[in-house]
Design brief:
Distance between the termini of chain B: 15 Å
Largest interface: A-B, 62 and 69 residues
CATH architecture of the largest domain in chain B: Orthogonal Bundle
Oligomer: heterodimer
Radius of gyration of chain A: 22 Å
Order of helices and strands of chain B: HHHHHHHHHHHHHHHHHHHH
Helix content of chain A: 40-55%
Helix content of chain B: over 70%
CATH topology of the largest domain in chain B: MetI-like fold
CATH superfamily of the largest domain in chain A: Periplasmic binding protein-like II
Number of helices of chain A: 12
Radius of gyration of chain B: 23 Å
Order of helices and strands of chain A: HEHEHEHEEEHHEHEHEEHHHEH
Strand content of chain A: 15-25%
CATH architecture of the largest domain in chain A: 3-Layer(aba) Sandwich
Structural class of chain A: alpha/beta
Largest sheet of chain A: 6 strands, mixed
Number of domains of chain A: 2
Distance between the termini of chain A: 59 Å
Shape of chain B: globular
Largest sheet of chain B: none
Number of domains of chain B: 2
Chain lengths: ~300, ~500
C-alpha cells in the first residue's frame, strides 16, 4: 500500500521533472528542420503531400526534416511564432499574421497559381442560383458558410467582397446564418448536403475535390469566380541561417522552386513553385485592416 | 439513507429553473441545418458496429493515458498542497476557484502559445484546472473528517505536523478514492485535447469524424470505453507508481522545440497585454475604448448565449435523469434489465461531452440543439447512474407499491433533495462546458475566444476567458447559496463518493 504522502511526493517530483523536460533543448549541432502547413482540406491529402515534401527537402538540404500536423490555422501560426516550426505552408492571411508576429521571417516561394489565386462562391442546387459574371447579390438572406476563420480564400477575401457588394453591412447582417466550416473540403460537403445554401471555397481545393469525385455537380455548383489575389506561400523564420548556416534560406528557396516531381505538386494542386517576397502580400494587409481582422 | 427533509422551496427552485429554461427556449436557436442527419447517423452506427481495430494507432492510446496520469498526478499533488491552506486562506481559495473555472481546452489554447504542441502543454492543461478542483474537494474531505485525533495533540504542534500525524491517516483512503476517480475525468480531458492538436486519441478521432471514417472512429471509441471500463483493474494504489513512471517514459517526443523562454516573455509582456497598453502609453480612456466593444459585442451576447444553453441543458438533464434512473434501480428493472441499464449509463457518462457535441454538430449543423443534446445526454447519464444507486439504498417497506406508484409516491419524493443537490452541483460544470462548445460553432463565449485566437488577438482572448471564469464562479456561488437555502449542502454530490 502506497501512502498518500508518497503519492504527493511523487507528484511533486514529476512536476519538477516535467518542467525540466520542457526546458531548453540540449545543444545539438543540427536540429531537424520542422515545418507545418495550415489544415485547409482533407487531412489524408495533407499527410500525403507534406510527407513527400519532407522526404524531398531532406534529400536536398542534408538536414533531417519533420512535418508536424496541426488542427487549426491559428495553431500553425502559433507553432511558427513560438519557434516549434521553422518553415510553414501558410495561406495568404496566416502568412501575413505569422510574419507580423515574427520579425525577420520571409515569404520565399509560392505556387505559380498563388500569384493570382481565386475563390469560388458555390451554391446548393436547391437555391436555383446559377453562374454569373457579376457578384451575385441575390445571395443575401441565404445561409452562408465561410471556411476557416483565418482562411484567405475561405474568409478574408470573401468577406471583403461581401462587404464591398453590400456597403455598410457585415456578413452577419447580409445572411440569415453565417458559419465557419473549418476547411474547404468541409465547406463543399456542407453546401452539397444543403446544410448551408451558399459557401466560399478555395478554387484549387474545389478542383482537387472535383477530380477526386467528391463533388456532385447535380447538388452543388460554382456561381461566381472572384477577382485574383495573392495566396499560399512558404514562409521561413529569419533565424534559420544562424541555425543551419549562412545561405540556408536561399538554399531552401532553390529547393522548393526546383520541385518538378508531379507526385509532389499534384496533391498541392500547383504546377510549380516560384520565388516570392513579403511585398507580394501587402495587398492582403490592407484587406485585413479593412475587414477588421488585422490591427 | 438520509431522508430528504420536506423543505418548502424544492417546488419553487424546480419551478424557477423550469420557467427559466422555457424562457431560454423561446430565444434559443434550435434549427437543424443539415438536410440528411439520419443518413449520416446510420453511417455512424454502421461504423460503430463494424469497428476497424487495425486502424487504431497504439501510441495515441498510450499518450492519452500518459497525459491523463501525469496531468492528474501533478494536479492532485499541487491540489493536496493547496488543500492544506484552503480553509484558512482566502487567497488560496480564490486562486483555486480561478484555476478550475477555466476549462482544460482554454488552458491548452493558452499554453500552446508558449509550449507549442508538446507533452508539457498536454500535461499542464490537465494539471492546472485539476489542481483547483482537487484542492477544493480534498479540503471538503478534510472538513468532513473525524477530528478526534487532532484534539489530543499537545499544544504548540505545528500545522504541518498536526496534519501529517493526526489527520492524514484518517483521510488518505478517501483522498486516494477521489484521485483515482479523477483519473477517469483526466482520461476524458486527455482525449478531448487531441481535438485541438495534441497527439492523443482525440486527434485521430477528430479526423475520422470529420472525414466520415466511422469504422475507425468506432474502433477508437470502443478502445476508449474499454480503458475506462477496466479502470479498476489497471488503476490501483499498487499500480500507481508504475503508471506514473511509465507515463513519464512514454510521453511523446517533442517534434521541434518551442523557444519557451522568449515565447513566455513575449506572451506575458506583449501578447496578453491589452493592445492600447502595449508600449506603455495607454490611458484609461484608450483602454475603455478598447474594452467597450469587446464587452458589448462579445462578452454580453456570448454570456447570454452561454446561459441560455446552460439553463436549457440543465433542465433537459433533469428530465433525462428522472427518466433514466429507474433503468439502473433494482426495484424498477429487475435483475436482468439493470446490468444493461448500467452499461448504457456508464457508456454515456464515459463519452466526453465535447466529443459528443462535436459529433452532434456534425450531424445536425451549428445550432444550440446539438449542444443541448450532448450536454444533457452526458449529465443525465451521470445523475441517472447516481440516482439509481441511491434508489437501491432506500429501505422500502415490505408492502411498498410497485412500478409507477412506487416511483411517483415513494422513490422520487424521498430522493428529490438528493436529485436537486446533484443538479445544482452540475450546474457549474454544465455552464463551463456550454462556454467551451463555442469553439465548435455555437455562439457561446467560446465562439468569441476562438475568433480572437484566430485573429491572434490573445489580449482579447484572455479577457473573454476571464469573463467566462467569472460567470462560472458566479453560477457556482449561486448554486451553493441555493443548496444552503434548501438545506441540501450535506448530501453527497460527487461521483467518487458512490464508488
Amino acid at each position: 500500500m502506497v501512502g498518500i504522502g508518497r503519492i504527493a511526493r511523487l507528484a511533486g517530483g514529476l512536476l519538477a521533472v516535467g518542467l525540466a523536460l520542457a526546458g531548453p533543448v540540449s545543444a545539438q549541432t543540427k536540429p531537424p528542420l520542422v515545418f507545418t502547413g495550415i489544415p485547409d482540406q482533407d487531412e489524408s491529402r495533407l499527410v500525403e503531400r507534406f510527407g513527400k515534401v519532407a522526404q524531398y527537402l531532406e534529400g536536398k538540404l542534408g538536414v533531417p526534416v519533420r512535418y508536424v500536423p496541426v488542427k487549426s490555422y491559428p495553431a500553425a501560426v502559433t507553432a511558427f511564432t513560438n519557434g516549434q516550426v521553422q518553415l510553414a505552408w501558410f495561406g495568404g492571411f496566416t502568412g501575413v499574421q505569422a510574419r507580423k508576429a515574427v520579425p525577420g521571417s520571409q515569404a520565399i516561394a509560392q505556387g505559380a497559381e498563388d500569384a493570382a489565386f481565386r475563390f469560388y462562391l458555390i451554391a446548393n442546387a436547391a437555391t436555383g442560383l446559377t453562374r454569373a459574371a457579376d457578384f451575385p447579390t441575390s445571395i443575401a438572406g441565404k445561409t452562408f458558410t465561410f471556411g476557416a476563420r483565418a482562411s484567405t480564400s475561405g474568409r478574408l477575401m470573401p468577406e471583403y467582397r461581401i462587404r464591398e457588394a453590400f456597403p455598410g453591412k457585415s456578413p452577419e447582417q447580409v445572411f440569415s446564418r453565417v458559419g465557419f466550416s473549418g476547411d474547404h473540403s468541409r465547406t463543399i460537403q456542407l453546401v452539397q448536403s444543403g446544410a448551408f445554401e451558399v459557401g466560399a471555397v478555395d478554387f484549387s481545393v474545389w478542383d482537387l475535390d472535383s477530380k477526386a469525385g467528391k463533388v456532385d455537380p447535380k447538388a452543388v455548383s460554382v456561381i461566381w469566380e472572384s477577382p485574383p489575389f495573392p495566396d499560399y506561400q512558404w514562409t521561413v523564420r529569419g533565424d534559420v541561417d544562424a541555425t543551419y548556416g549562412a545561405g540556408f534560406t536561399e538554399k531552401l528557396r532553390a529547393a522548393l522552386v526546383g520541385v518538378t516531381d508531379p507526385a509532389i505538386l499534384e496533391p498541392f494542386g500547383r504546377s510549380k513553385f516560384i520565388p516570392v517576397t513579403n511585398a507580394a502580400y501587402e495587398p492582403l494587409i490592407e484587406v485585413g485592416k479593412a475587414t477588421g481582422l488585422l490591427d | 439513507m438520509r431522508l430528504a427533509p420536506r423543505v418548502p422551496g424544492y417546488r419553487a427552485v424546480s419551478g424557477g429553473f423550469a420557467l427559466a429554461a422555457l424562457l431560454c427556449l423561446a430565444v434559443a436557436d434550435l434549427h437543424v441545418t443539415t438536410l440528411h442527419p439520419f443518413a449520416e447517423l446510420s453511417r455512424l452506427f454502421a461504423g460503430l458496429i463494424r469497428p476497424d481495430f487495425w486502424s487504431v494507432e497504439g501510441w495515441s492510446v498510450v499518450y492519452t493515458v500518459a497525459f491523463a496520469v501525469l496531468g492528474v498526478g501533478c494536479g492532485a499533488g499541487a491540489g493536496f498542497l493547496l488543500a492544506i491552506h484552503f480553509a484558512h486562506s482566502r487567497i488560496v481559495r480564490v486562486f483555486c476557484a480561478a484555476l478550475r473555472s477555466v476549462h482544460e481546452l482554454f488552458w491548452a489554447l493558452l499554453l500552446m502559445q508558449v509550449f507549442g504542441l508538446s507533452a508539457t502543454t498536454g500535461v499542464l492543461a490537465i494539471a492546472l484546472p485539476y489542481a483547483g478542483i482537487c484542492a477544493k474537494v480534498y479540503s471538503e474531505i478534510i472538513e468532513e473528517a473525524d477530528l478526534s485525533a487532532l484534539r489530543v495533540l499537545p499544544p504548540g504542534t505545528g500545522v504541518v505536523s498536526a496534519f501529517a500525524y493526526a489527520r492524514l491517516p484518517d483521510l488518505a483512503g478517501r483522498f486516494a478514492d477521489y484521485t483515482l476517480y479523477r483519473l477517469e475525468c483526466g482520461m476524458r480531458s486527455s482525449l478531448v485535447l487531441g481535438f485541438i492538436g495534441l497527439p492523443t486519441m482525440g486527434f485521430t478521432l477528430e479526423s475520422a469524424f470529420r472525414q466520415g471514417r466511422y469504422a475507425e472512429a468506432g474502433a477508437l471509441l470502443l478502445v476508449f470505453y474499454a480503458l475506462i471500463g477496466t479502470r479498476r483493474l489497471w488503476v490501483r494504489r499498487g499500480t500507481l507508481p508504475v503508471l506514473l513512471v511509465g507515463a513519464l517514459l512514454a510521453l511523446p517526443p517533442a517534434i521541434g522545440h518551442a523557444a519557451i523562454g522568449p515565447s513566455l516573455v513575449r506572451f506575458l509582456t506583449h501578447d496578453i497585454v491589452p493592445a492600447p497598453l502595449r508600449g506603455g502609453e495607454g490611458t484609461w480612456i484608450s483602454l475603455w475604448a478598447w474594452f467597450r466593444p469587446i464587452l458589448t459585442d462579445q462578452i454580453l451576447p456570448g454570456a447570454a448565449q452561454t446561459l441560455v444553453l446552460a439553463q436549457i441543458a440543465l433542465v433537459v438533464t433533469a428530465l433525462g435523469a428522472l427518466l433514466l434512473f429507474p433503468l439502473t434501480a433494482r426495484r424498477f428493472t429487475g435483475p436482468l434489465g439493470r446490468p444493461f441499464g448500467r452499461v448504457l449509463l456508464v457508456v454515456v457518462r464515459s463519452t466526453p461531452e465535447y466529443m459528443l457535441a462535436y459529433l452532434c454538430l456534425q450531424l445536425l449543423g451549428p445550432s444550440m440543439l446539438p449542444a443541448i443534446i450532448a450536454l444533457s445526454l452526458h449529465n443525465a447519464g451521470i445523475i441517472g447512474y447516481l440516482m439509481g444507486r441511491h434508489a437501491d439504498a432506500i429501505p422500502y417497506r415490505p408492502d411498498a407499491p410497485h412500478g409507477l406508484n412506487l416511483y411517483a409516491y415513494e422513490t422520487l419524493p424521498r430522493l428529490y433533495g438528493q436529485f436537486l443537490a446533484f443538479l445544482l452541483y452540475r450546474w457549474e460544470l454544465i455552464l463551463r462546458e456550454s462556454a467551451i462548445f463555442g469553439i465548435l460553432g455555437v455562439t457561446t463565449l467560446g465562439f468569441y475566444v476562438d475568433a480572437a485566437i484566430s485573429e491572434l488577438r490573445l489580449d482579447v482572448a484572455v479577457v473573454l476567458i476571464a469573463a467566462t471564469a467569472l460567470l462560472t464562479m458566479a453560477v457556482d456561488a449561486l448554486s451553493r447559496a441555493l443548496r444552503r437555502g434548501l438545506r441540501i449542502t450535506d448530501l453527497p454530490t460527487r461521483l467518487s463518493d458512490q464508488t
